[in-house]
Write a structure and sequence with these properties.
Helix content: 40-55%
CATH topology of the largest domain: Malonyl-Coenzyme A Acyl Carrier Protein, domain 2
Structural class: alpha/beta
CATH architecture of the largest domain: 3-Layer(aba) Sandwich
Order of helices and strands: EHHHHEHHEHHEEHEHEHHEHEH
Radius of gyration: 19 Å
Shape: globular
CATH class of the largest domain: Alpha Beta
CATH superfamily of the largest domain: Malonyl-Coenzyme A Acyl Carrier Protein, domain 2
Largest sheet: 5 strands, parallel
Strand content: 5-15%
Length: about 325
Amino acid sequence: MKNVFLFSGQGTQYYHMGNDLRVCHPAFEHNMLRLAKIVHDVTGCSILDVVYDPRKHKSDNFSDCRLSNIALLTIEYALAETLQQEGIMPDVVCGMSLGEYTAVVVAGGMTFETAVHLVASAGDCFDAHCESGAMLAVLDDVSIYHNNDILYDSTDIAFDSHGKHFVIAGSINGIREAEKYLRRENICFQPLPVAFGYHSGNIDPAHRAYAGVLNNIAFRKLQIPLYSTVTTGLIEYLDGDHFWQTAREPIRLMEALTSIVNNERYCYIDLGPTGTMANLVSHWRGKQSALNVFPVITPFNNSQTNYAKLLDAMKRNQIPFSTAYV
């Protein structure tokens, strides 16, 4: 059995994410503090003051592009470091959207400092060049998108779970038209906490500016296999354009997961703050794989319990040790 580290992207962030694990796990807190110092050195931002602002509630909309990008990267990488310090190493990494930045850092393709610079710059470029946008999770089969002119003409598909769930993205006006149709048809949907329509034409005006940032980065050779939810396959070579595509192209998680599987058993560990990736993998693999899918941080104050389950599974040899750590 091998370990797959999974990293979620925009829309999975929220205020106070991971706070229950910080309180009870000194190593995780230490990693958060160390990474927060790096964030401050790179950007001047006190990211922990932002995420754990006592005036904010979990339910408040955390959609500031620059800050939410940095926060998500920081918490995911802090958890990855903590697990590796426990002896739980990744054999494969895979990230959705912004989560692909974290996956690349874990795989050795760039430093955390570089990733902070890139995600902060992406936020600046979107803020400077793009109109506001939005994203909706739609709880229905994706066929309704392809068979309806309102949805098809006014939005883009950002993600298809190949089940009863897909995500659309676009301009504010386009999403409003989609919402009107969905309400009329009594189709359930959930807005995501984002300021732009990632994975849609809404962010195209930022392409040139962000490409200018990306083209100045020298990426390193990956030391751990990384499967991309953009290309759906194993990444052999990184360049700047790849990171633009992670924001612009639709997320193809299920296809990437299918590429990973090669007659081997995998343990899937979700390092995002909501458990979304674990849920998606569980539905994709079916009930038989439930014991090998592990969320850690969730919004439900059960992160300590989840972490303990992960360590217990490791002790019972349900989760392997690996020598793949760089």
